[in-house]
Amino acid sequence: FSARKFIEVATFRSGQVQTAKSGVIVRDNCYGNLEDDVVRRDFNINALYYDIHKHEVIDYVGGLKDLEAREIHIIGEAKLRFSEDPVRMIRAVRFGEKLGAELSDEVKNCILDQAPLLSNISPARLYEECIKLFHNEYSFEVYEQLEKYGLLKHLFKQTHKNDFIKKALLNTAARIKQNKPVTPAFLFAVFLWQAQNERFVMIKKKQRSFYLAMT
Prior knowledge:
By secondary structure, the protein is mainly alpha-helical. It has helices at 34-40, 63-69, 78-84, 87-99, 105-114, 123-134, 139-148, 152-155, 163-177, 184-205, 210-213, and strands at residues 18-19, 25-27, 48-51, 56-59, 71-72, 102-103. It has a single domain (18-213), classed as cca-adding enzyme, domain 2, CATH 1.10.3090. The chain has eleven helices and six strands. The protein is elongated and about 70 Å long.
């Protein structure tokens, strides 16, 4: 595998979870079995299991059918599943662009309604998710979908859609296709440059030094 491909290994989870008052899951590490674990997954396409002894794919929820149809369906009720973990909304967008798949109407409508829940997620976790969102060959397409569903403003509150970001994301995608290195520092500098520049102009109007305006 290349440096950009990962194999994540996880134990089976049971249906026993601990949630905050907001409904967000705060503890989800109770061991379970295969049948329990299926209902803890987010999307049908993410609930496929491989039996290494029989060399067979185990599909309880129609994930293979969704892959063939290029559709993204959530397991369970979308409103509840997104309130449990709002990050699932941006994962839906990423999977849709990665696989060239269409989000189900239920998923689309719930994202539009529940996008503000992303504000409840820790910056550290959102940072990791942003790397997954934009360090790929379809980063600009992901960006457009995030803006379309009202998710972008909850990831970068002071950032507005502009051509500078478009050019940077297309450049990132091109570098990845050419197996050239990319860095998170460049990514976040691009997204935050507009807000930083506006702040710089505001401080300069107060006749403060260039150094103070940029720090």
